[in-house]
Structures are given as structure tokens and as C-alpha cells.
Amino acid sequence: MIIKEDVEHELARLIGTVSGNDPGSDVAADASLQEELGIDSLALVELAEEIEERYGVRVPDEDLDALRTFGDLVDYLHARA
Amino acid sequence: MSAVLRADVDVVITGVGATTPLGGDVATTWRGLLDGRSGVSALTSQWAVEHDFPVRIAARLAVEPAQELEPVELRRLDRCEQLAMVAARQAWRDAGLTEDSVDPTRRGVVVGTGIGGVLTVVDQHDALRTGGPRAVSPQTIPMIMPNGPAAHVGLALRARAGVHAPVSACAAGAEAIALAWRMIKMGDADVVIAGGADACIAPVIMAGFLRARSMSKRNSHPHRASRPFDAARDGFVLGEGAGIVVLERADFAAARGAKSYGRLVGVGMSNDAHHIAAPDPEGGGQGRAILNALRSAGLDRADIGHVNAHATSTTLGDLTESGAIRRALGDHPVVSAPKGALGHLLGAAGAVEAIATILSIRDSVVPPTANLEALDHRIPLDVVAGGPREVSLTAAISNSFGFGGHNVTLAFTAA
User: How many CB atoms lie within 10 A of CB B112?
Assistant: First the structure.
């Protein structure tokens, strides 16, 4: 079982690494990955790679299109970790 | 858009940037050239030792780009793109440009490369072999495409007049400046950021050049290995770097109060169509590039006081160029070959050497050809050796030639 707040904190950090823009520690669940957090289509694939490395959760390419907000990402990870 | 070159449009150089084996900027590089200092050192990479490479020397960067780039840029940019970015930002700042100085739709970029993102190709191929396709970075294609350096610079500087990427081996940096000049002369842009970048000190590239028998093997004396026009030269030394200039329509630059280093008054290009990797030994193509530059500049051969030679320190190449210079211009120009100090920066060479040529005119001084101790007796030119020579210059040219038979000559005058 992983703690939700820890996950959010860690995901925000990974987003910062991949996008080059630190989103801060308090990211809104409805924040758009693409428009607000600077995760373009290539960066999303990199983010999936980071998540796999960090949590051992593999995000198949087919699932990527459904991940549109920060909340989507948190929920996705919770459902699988 | 006009389809003809406008005689009433002058092109000035308002900014310069470089990162080279002699220094992380233009000022340090220029000082190194004047001092005749060598940027070549022993190659101690594990691969060179493991594979017992017969060549153990290279001209590595003096300052790593990591010091000047954001972490995300280091992740997403191949090394040659990183170098282009470092030099472009220097040039942009040096020109005193800001976002408001020039409309993005009047802002162009032309950055060439000889080899491109080969370090990424090798890294990602290794990743593929060990981890399969999922181990390959999604940034791979933008990192290996030969227009990558131009595209990244264009993106960072919001250049919307056009972004172009000439790929002409060791002539790429000079060709980029030539094409940028045309963009301004044709009325397509007011400001163009132009130059070249290469970073390919990798085993497969070294081995390839080695197999082509064009590299110096003077491993015992790295500093003395690159010696253009010297009787004892035995090949070129592979280097890495980037050079970028800001070219600007003269009246546009004057209106915003920009300083000018000098004017790019003409460009000459030609091709040997002789051999894929060797120059036409008659030097006809090289001579035509020089004469084309003079014609486009409206200069007479007597006006050319200085030639910044391409001379890479290969036996045949230096000899061919010396003949071409002598036949096109006579024996009066003061000649110098910066590759003695810099090594061969491939697609960056023409841009870095264009900067040196401009600075020679501005400062009335021609740097020595590093390591030139005994001029090859077959070379009928006045080549500067030993120390810098003070000489007042009206006009000077810079030559760049590349595998594929590409010949480019740029002609500059004082501001």
C-alpha cells in the first residue's frame, strides 16, 4: 500500500524532472498534464518510463492517451501499485 | 518575398558565440588562437584503450555545456544540439538582442552540422540491444535528426522567418552563414542566427575516419599533432564545438543601435563533383568558390589581405588548397590555418573560423598557424607561423571544404 500524499509529491517531482518546470508540491488534481504541467506527448512517454523505474508499474502506450490530468495519473498509479 | 539578391542590402555581423577546445566563449578562443595554443589532448576514454585505437588524441571542449544548460535541456538535446544552443545564446546576448528587438517572423536560423547526433544514435542503439524498444528514449528522433541543432535554436529563439540546416560535412558551418546571408539579401529576414555544431568524438566515428586514413597518429605529442601546411603533417585531429554568428541587415542593426564586428560582403560556393571524400587535386572547385565570393562581393583579388584557410593538416588537402589560393589570389594574402590550434571541428569549423576572420579584420592581427615549424616547400604561400602578425586588412576570406566536394568561401570587410 502506498500513501497517496507521498505519491503525489513524488509524481510532481518526476514531472519537474521530465518537463524542466517544477510544478511545486501542491498540484491540483485537475491540472492538465499537457497545458499546465508542460508534459507534451514525448515527455509523457518519458514520465511513464520514470514511473516504471520508481514504482515498478508498467504504463503501456495504449494507456497514455487516457492520462490527461495530474489526478488521472495519481488514480492510475493507485489502481495498479 | 523577393526572388533576387538586393544590392542595396548590406549584411553586418552583430554578435558572435562559440564553444571550442580552446575556450567556452569567443574571447578565450580568440586569445588561444593568437597565442598559438593547442586544444588537442590525449584521448583517455575507456573505449580508446579497450579497442587499442591507433589514434589516441582529440580536441575536446574546454568547457562542458552542462555548466550553461538547464537539466531538461541536457536530457532532451544531443551533445551537438547542446553546443549549438550554448553558442547561439552567447551570440544572441552579444548582439544585444531581446525578444522585442526583432519581430519573430523576421528572425531566421541557419545551423548546419557535419555528423549530427551520432552520440545519441550510439547510446540508444546500446539501450535497444540491452532493453528492447521500450528502453529507447522517446526523444531519440529529435536528438538525432540533422536539423536538430537548427530546430532547437530556432525554437529557443522563436525564429519564424525560417529555420534551415545545411548538411555539407566540414563546410556546413560556412554554408549556413552563406545561406543566412542570402536570406537577408533576398529580403526574407532582418536577423539570422547562423553557424554550425558538431560533437562526435565516438569510437565508430574515430574508426571511420581512421579507416579513411585521414587522421594524425602523433599520439606521443598531442599538442603538436595538428600542423597545417607543415612538412611533417600527418592528418587531422578530430574536435568538437560550435560557432554561431548573428547576421543582420545593416540598416536594421543601425536603427537599433547595435555594434558591428564587420560586414559579410560576399559568399562563394561550388562543388568539385570529383570524388566523395577527396578534393579535386587541381583545386578547380576550391578556386571557383574563392572567385565566386569575390565576384558576389565586388572585390578585386588585390583587396584580399588575409585568407583564413580550411587546411586540416592532411597531406593532400593542404596542398590542394594552397594551390587554389595561389592561383585565385596570388601570393600577397597573409594566410593562417586555425585548425593547428583548434583541431578539426567538422560542421562547426567554418563558423568558428568565420568568427576568427572577422576578428582578424577588426583587430588588424592574424593568428599564427599553430605547430607550423617547417613550411612544406610545395606550398607557395605567406603562412603566418610562430606568433601573431599585425596587418591592416581591408578584406579577408574564410575557406571551408567538405566531404562531398562542397566548397564555401565567405568574404568579409571591416565594419
Answer: 36
> Residues of B numbered 64-123 whose beta carbons fall under 8 angstroms of chain A's beta carbons: which are they?
70-73, 75
| Residues paired with residue A63 on neighbouring β-strands, in sequence order | none
Q: Do B71 and A45 touch (CB under 8 A)?
A: no
pLDDT surpassing 50 at residue B85: yes
Tell me which residue range forms the domain holding A62: 4-80
User: So which residues of B are the catalytic ones?
Assistant: 170, 310, 344
Give B63's contacts (C-beta < 8 A, 6+ positions apart): B19, B23, B24
- Which residue is catalytic, options A22, A26, A30, A40? A40
Average confidence score pLDDT of chain B = 97
State yes or no: pLDDT of B2 exceeds 70.
no
pLDDT band at B382 (very low <50, low <70, confident <90, very high): very high
Q: What is the DSSP letter of B236?
A: B
HEC secondary structure over B188-206? CCCEEEEEEEECCCCHHHH
pLDDT at A81: 77
- The confidence score (pLDDT) of residue A1 equals 53
C-alpha cell at A45: 512517454
What pTM was computed for the model? 0.95
Q: What CATH architecture does domain B11-255 belong to?
A: 3-Layer(aba) Sandwich (3.40)
Contact B138 A46 (CB under 8 A): yes
Q: What is the pLDDT of residues B223-232, one digit of tens each?
A: 999 999 999 9
Q: Give the integer Cα–Cα distance in Å for B349 and B404.
A: 16
A42:B142 CB<8 A: yes
Q: How far is B139 from chain A (nearest CA, A)?
A: 6
Which of B73, B134, B138 has its CB closest to that of A42? B138
**CB within 8 Å of B60: residues ≥ 6 apart:** B21, B39, B41, B201, B239, B240
Q: Does A56 touch chain B (CB under 8 A)?
A: no
Query: Domain ranges in chain B?
Result: 11-255, 266-413
* CATH code, domain carrying A34: 1.10.1200.10
Name the CATH architecture for the domain at B266-413.
Answer: 3-Layer(aba) Sandwich (3.40)
Q: How many residues does chain A have?
A: 81
The number of folded domains in chain A is 1
- Amino acid present at A41: S
> Kind and range of the H or E element at B271?
strand B262-271
Report the percent of chain B where pLDDT is more than 90: 97
Are the C-beta atoms of residues A48 and A11 closer than 8 Å to each other?
no
